[in-house]
Amino acid sequence: MKKLLFLGLAIIAASALSAVAGEAKANFDKSCAKCHGADGKGQTKMGQKLGIKDYTDAKVQAELKDEAATQAIKDGLKDKEGKVLMKPAEDLSADDIKALVNYMRAFKK
Fold this sequence. Notes:
This protein is mostly helical. 62% of the residues lie in helices and 5% in strands.
């Protein structure tokens, strides 16, 4: 009986994690991929124009802290002159933003 309960809980947890990962991908595709690219390399027309970093690069990933990524998603980014480089992501909860950061981390090779 305990094994069945444990198995049931494991299946529920795996389903929940899959749902969160799916939502993170959908949010990334909707809000981020236009510039960062679906693969996180930043090799889109807009990504190249803005000099977006390649998030598949382990060195780039190591330099970027989760707090900074979270803040950028939440508040957007501006250059030194105040020009908007990245708009804040709209309608995302703190959990959605955390999932986006985790999704971005998965690009690292």
